[in-house]
Amino acid sequence: MKQVFYSNSQEETVHFAEKMGTLLKPSDVILLEGDLGAGKTTFTKGLAKGLGIDKVIKSPTFTIVREYKNGRLPLYHMDVYRLEEASIDELGLFEYFDAGGVSVVEWAHFIASELPNTYLKLTIKRVSDEKREFILESFGARYDQLLAEVINNDSRN
């Protein structure tokens, strides 16, 4: 299933992601793709808010994984941009996918062969300084359901 959502500001992006965060379940996996500055971390801030996480969300660019455990579910925010040569097995990242939290993976195409078979993929494209296009693609029945719930809960649709 595939849907497109447009955000006209960072605030709209955070609000949309926050609503999605309220619908997430243990072991959900969300892949984020988009150019530098497209809004991947901004989106993750909204997800965290929807999960009830009140910590400051920072990009995990140099740490690879940031863990936030003070919400309804743990959030594992990963940035695998620099892992082209490394194996996900060597780093133990696969363990996060089954740890009962929500895994958000930025630049997931770099570890495509190591990812679970089912997930929600968001590709973020910059339309203008503020406007973003979100292409949401579900892979698996759980994510078909999640995508349908997200779209149905978006008051603009």
Notable traits:
27% strand, globular, alpha/beta, 157 residues, seven-stranded mixed beta sheet, 5 helices, 7 strands
Reconstruct the topology from this structure.
Elements lengths: L1 E6 L2 H12 L7 E6 L5 H11 L14 E4 L6 E5 L8 H4 L2 H4 L4 E5 L12 E8 L5 E8 L1 H13 L4
Helix pairs in contact: 1-2
Report on this structure.
The protein is α/β, with parallel strands linked by helices and 157 residues long. The protein contains 5 helices and 7 strands; from the N terminus they run E-H-E-H-E-E-H-H-E-E-E-H. The radius of gyration is 14 Å and the shape is globular.
Helix content: 25-40%
Total DSSP helices: 5
The coarse overall form would be globular
Largest sheet: 7 strands, mixed
Beta-strand residue percentage? 25-35%
Give the H and E element order.
Answer: EHEHEEHHEEEH
Rg result:
14 Å
Number of strands: 7
Short description:
The protein has 157 residues and is α/β, with parallel strands linked by helices.
